């Protein structure tokens, strides 16, 4: 039996970008999945007599950056060049998967200690995937208030887990913990940190704090995530693609020398699911954990999650512009964003290669988006980069079907991390065919 189907899984922030993508997979195989998010009420209580923008923006904390319809490609882009993004569309599209699901979805503000404790205690999860944290943008503009809310939520979760030591906690951190380090060398999970960005400072604290209180925790330091889904704060790839489709041109601030390490959203979901898809002892759970031991396949600790490629904004912009057949304009007098150093992903590769087990995570990715799915594999191997002849296959399934396609090509021996060129091409094709933000 698929190990995921035997787990009781709780996802916090399940209506967010990463949380909702994880949920779309888990809900197909687990009848005991609980999703909690303070935005759940938005999808069921919209008052059509009131301007929806006002309703949705009111659901966000007062200290969050003001919800805008315009997301700019540059730090201070002109309004006429900005890209439309509807927060209402975000809530409506994300909510569809939840209301069409048999899984349990509940509204919860994690700052409510009593309700958080009661829900977790009653549900008795085997795994908690904690996605409910504020964004880098929120921390950039509102460090104190963002930290206070995230700290309160995290403490409430940790308190609830005090009597459940076997419950695996998965926490999503960020590559921003490496901000402030020189970009001319690579860093791994053991490198000394000296974060300068507000988000990195907070994430670095939470990493150590959580591991100190709850040693049964896996922490993933995510690089720039892109791919299908409803991203409330689009990254540079989606922003560039939108500008190409809207303005039929692409503008880059500076010379595009800034470099980014990306990770495809499907790889994020894949690795998170693998981190708890079998038991630590006995394989089938037949051998109980001794006091003080922790469960889960992946050893507790911190792991970098970033692809194998380190790409300049210039090269990314040119690739996207070529795809949409538009011209790139470089505004060399404009400032560029910060370049974070390249993160070694060898630890996660080695760890999952050592496990070297055969898992049975099956899913039809076309449920997420029509004609937009990687074939899934029963045999996950963390080995060197896949050869072109073993590259990803794209099934042509109808939307909403469920032929139980495989999560990875079984011949694709590597492939924790999809090569950037392959992932980008697939993603741009999906955007070109139509996307929920249109």
UniProtKB/TrEMBL annotation:
InterPro entries on file: Epimerase_deHydtase, NAD(P)-bd_dom_sf
Any Pfam family matching the protein: Epimerase
Domain NAD-dependent epimerase/dehydratase: 9-283
Family of this protein: Belongs to the NAD(P)-dependent epimerase/dehydratase family.
Descriptive protein name: NAD-dependent epimerase/dehydratase domain-containing protein
Lineage of producing organism: Bacteria, Candidatus Staskawicziibacteriota
């Amino acid at each position: 039996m698929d190990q995921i189907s035997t787990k009781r899984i709780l996802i916090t922030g399940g209506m967010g970008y990463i949380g909702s993508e994880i949920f779309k997979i888990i809900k197909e195989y687990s009848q005991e999945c609980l999703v909690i998010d303070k935005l759940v009420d938005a999808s069921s209580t919209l008052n059509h007599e009131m301007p929806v923008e006002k309703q949705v923006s009111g659901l966000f904390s007062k200290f969050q950056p003001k919800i805008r319809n315009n997301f700019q490609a540059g730090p201070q882009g002109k309004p006429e060049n900005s890209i439309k993004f509807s927060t209402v569309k975000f809530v409506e599209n994300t909510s569809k998967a939840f209301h069409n699901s048999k899984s349990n979805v509940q509204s919860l503000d994690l700052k409510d200690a009593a309700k958080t404790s009661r829900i977790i205690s009653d549900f008795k999860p085997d795994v908690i995937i904690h996605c409910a944290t504020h964004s880098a943008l929120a921390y950039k503009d509102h460090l104190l208030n963002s930290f206070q809310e995230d700290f309160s939520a995290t403490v409430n979760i940790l308190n609830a887990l005090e009597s459940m030591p076997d419950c695996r906690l998965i926490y999503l951190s960020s590559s921003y913990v490496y901000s402030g380090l020189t970009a001319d060398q690579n860093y791994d999970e053991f490198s000394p940190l000296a974060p300068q960005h507000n988000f990195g400072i907070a994430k670095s604290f939470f990493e150590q704090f959580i591991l100190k209180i709850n040693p049964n925790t896996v922490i993933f330091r995510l690089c720039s995530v892109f791919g299908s889904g409803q991203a409330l704060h689009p990254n540079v790839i989606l922003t560039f693609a939108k500008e190409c489709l809207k303005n039929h041109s692409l503008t880059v601030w500076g010379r595009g020398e800034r470099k980014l390490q990306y990770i495809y959203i499907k790889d994020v979901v894949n690795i998170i699911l693998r981190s708890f898809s079998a038991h630590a002892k006995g394989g089938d759970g037949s051998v109980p954990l001794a006091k003080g031991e922790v469960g889960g396949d992946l050893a507790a600790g911190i792991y970098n999650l970033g692809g194998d490629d380190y790409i300049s904004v210039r090269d990314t912009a040119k690739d996207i512009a070529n795809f949409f057949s538009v011209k790139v304009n470089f505004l060399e007098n404009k400032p560029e964003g910060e370049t974070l150093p390249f993160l070694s992903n060898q630890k996660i590769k080695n760890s999952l290669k050592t496990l070297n087990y055969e898992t049975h995570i099956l899913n039809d990715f076309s449920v997420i988006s029509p004609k937009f799915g990687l074939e899934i594999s029963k045999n996950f191997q963390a080995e060197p980069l896949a050869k072109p002849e073993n590259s990803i296959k794209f099934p042509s399934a109808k939307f909403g079907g469920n032929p139980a396609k495989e999560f990875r090509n079984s011949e694709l021996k590597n492939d924790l991390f999809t090569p950037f060129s392959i992932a980008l091409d697939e993603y741009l094709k999906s955007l070109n065919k139509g996307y929920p933000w249109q």
